[in-house]
Amino acid sequence: MTETASHGPLTGLRVLEIGHFVAAPFCTRVLGDLGADIIKIEPPAGDPVRQWGAQIDGNSLWWSIHGRNKRSVTVNLKAPGASDLVLALAARCDAVVENFRPGQLERLGLGDAIMRSARPDLVIAHISGYGQDGPYRDRAAFGVIGEAIGGLRYLTDHEPGTTDLPPVRVGVSIGDSLAGLYAAFGIVSAVWQRDRAAGDGKGRTMDVALSEAVLSMTEGMLPEYAALGKVRQPTGSRIPTAAPSSAYPCSDGKWILIAANSEPLFARLSRLIGRPELPQEQRFANNRMRVANVVELDELIGSWTRSLPVDQIERKLNDADIPSTRVYSAAECAADPQFRHRGMVREVDDRLFGKVLHLGIVPHVPDDPGKIRWAGPAVGEHTDEVLSDILGMQPAEIAAMRREGVI
């Protein structure tokens, strides 16, 4: 890296991303936010995600976040000599992350053994739909497929019998993002094991499957099925193991989330809605009974919330110290004082859009916080810089590679 200042706890870590769409790029965004130097290999036409989402003058606002803190280097991976260039970069990186179909990089001359011939202790993270082996290895998959086969799309649906609409999507590319987070955790773990005091100096391979990343989040779903034959069912807005904990309609068309599922909280909520006797009734005497009678309980709470606008309900619930919040839209997230105070919603300079709102950095590390050094770069914006600074190539060499269609 040419910079020496700290940009977070991963400053000094260099990661080569050979990724596209969401999963691998999400992994490197997390690492880059915490200070890692991310070298993103893109085809000359750019990552397809540059065309996703809302755009201004043909430029994706999504890319402003998706590509931030990354140095974009264009490489035509199918061109003669391209694999040698990528190998030279891999030799100067701590880790490589990719999310092509299993075997595709090997066919391009960039298999694990070849990359480790360039750097034996290289950490390599593969992200794919189903993993690098097994009967589904070669199946096509995106995040939504992982969400379905991993059980999440079943659980996020409405309650059985309430609608014949298709199972509800979470609303973001959660399967891709989960896989990216697992890959980031795996990379940091492998580098720590390799480099720590008396470390073994070995490279390691991470094999992250979208389907497995999703399935790993399903709590007690599998043991309940194995031991009891119980198939966990979607519960809509409710939590199947605690009550009351749901979204309730307000008089102004907004929704309020109320989670008053402990005994003291339920007692306070009962007083607040004008029904202080509810905790003494057998049907609501404890959490187990409240779960069993949740439909009736939610009707009682909903009759109160329907009588008031969300501002008043939220104020009353906060005054009573009951966990609650209105259901936020993008506008409410953007204006929230807590998010603003902690920098989770912040203004960032973007060369295309001027000031634009970005998501902040998670985790927050007070002693060495991460930093948004720049928004998503132009396609190939850093090609010459990276080839010059990292590989020591001269302008004439770079120009020749450009003429040959390698970069």
Automatic annotation (TrEMBL):
InterPro entries: CoA-transferase_III_domain, CoA-Trfase_fam_III, CoA-Trfase_III_dom3_sf, CoA-Trfase_III_dom_1_sf
Keywords: Transferase
A single GO molecular function term of this UniProt record: transferase activity
Presence of keyword Ribonucleoprotein: no
Residues spanning the membrane: none
Enzyme nomenclature, EC number: 2.8.3.-
Top-level EC class as recorded in UniProt: transferase
Keyword field contains Transferase: yes
Protein name: CoA transferase
Source organism of this protein record: Aquibium pacificus
